[in-house]
Amino acid sequence: MKKTSKAYLVFLNGKSNAGGAERMVHYLDEYLNSREILTQIIDEDFLKNTFTGKLYWRIFNYKHFEKRRAKYIARFATAFLWLHYSSNKIVISNGEPTAYYPTDYVISHGCYHKMELDYGRNNSKLSRVAKLQKQACLNAKKIIAVESNVKDDLIKYYGINRSKISVVPNCIDKNNFYPTTKNNVAFKTIVYIGRLEYGKGIAELQELAKLTELRADWKLLIASNNSYNTELFQNLSNTTLLIGLTIDNINELAYSKADIVYYPSYSESFGMVTIEALACGRPIAGNAVGVLPKLAAEKHPGAYLLPKIIDENIFNFFDDCIEDSKKFTPEEIHEKAIRKFGIESFFEQMDKQFFQTK
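and the corresponding structure tokens:
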């Protein structure tokens, strides 16, 4: 890293702590601050509330611009960064918003084109957003991918030079995610944590909610960062909805209630829910996406892959997972997850990326 005292973190969703990618911005911010580097989060709210941004954002009232929103935001972000350029500042982004700017680092949470293919895209050509991500990766001086599969995808789909990409896995803070005692109740609870979108497996979640309605011994708890699609789960006796949890209360209000965490996502570059559940000492069953299949193959305690079909037999499967996970205490599951994905290890690996000498 060049000698610097300040960093711009260009992540449009900020560090709301609501989703996995946002939580990693939170950890990145904590890391840089711990190394005495001042940070400025450049998110969408920041950009559109600048003097020029208040005028510029009016263009999105028009269909042409709204349809191409990502491209025009990238142009505005580029103009902002050049106007505020300083030799002692570094720029870090997640890609798309700095497609036209030579960033110092892109932190890649996943290949957008690969995600679209996983979600069912039939066109092999890159979408508008995928093109922006590719251009940002080409322009960046260095790329840090959150998993080896992300590195492989960036090389395969975008033609990025392998030597330009390093891998630093996502991390977990044991001060926020740790085992707690579950209340003794007459039912078992399945917990889903994530956005209620197609690609997150919402159809399978709806099916599970319907099946749970027929059971007296199971409950479903859904924790989402916003209210989108929550109406699909209204008026259900055995399903509870929690909206807008943060990194400070998601363990207490969601993970701590789980007998098992349900993770039906179709595509994940890493999957923060996986390591958060394990750090909380809770078993997780999900699709073979992100880091979960690797952990399941390693026989990591508490990591399980879902069956292909969600039907009434799913509860027997959940029971088997819960019983198998009891071979280890919640504290043992936690400790193994922290050894592998702890924030201390993350900081050490980031030091090598930012401060290593040639």
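(Above: one complete record from the training split.) The chain has 15 helices and twelve strands.
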